[in-house]
Amino acid sequence: MAKLLVIDDEVEICELIKFYLGNYFSDVSTVQSVPQAIGKLKDNKFDLIITDLDLVSGTGESLIRYVRRDDSLNHATAIIAISGGREFDEASVGHCRFVKKPFREEDLIEKIKDLKNELKKESSKESKKSANEPTATHPDLMKLLKKS
What we know:
The strands form two sheets. The chain has a five-stranded parallel β-sheet, sandwiched between helices. Strands 4-5 form a two-stranded antiparallel sheet. The chain is about 45% helix and about 20% strand. The longest helix is centred in the C-terminal third of the chain and has 28 residues, at about 105-130. It is of the alpha/beta class. The chain has a single domain (about 5-145), classed as Response regulator (Rossmann fold, 3-Layer(aba) Sandwich). It is globular.
């Protein structure tokens, strides 16, 4: 059951995103402020967060930093930042993409696919890494494992 959280102080934008992505997510929650978003994040686990960068109640960047730092949240949650006024450096935050307003449904879908592929690659790397790491710690066993 994929869950989406949309944060934008323009209700119309929240409703548009919900309309565009409602068929892809089993649960779409919308809020208009950073404090409301934090409340939702504390009570729920989301697979994707879409946040406006320019909110009346704070910035989308501060919310993104909060998600990445707070130990009670999933730091790897995928995020799409949206803004009509400025750009955002996707590379500055892991698992994040930027979409400029006005946007189309296809723009959001493309970014979601990018994030999904990024998360798959990372998960695959972690699986391979842990599969190749020996679990034995005794020095003689470590020598044997290195020889084979």
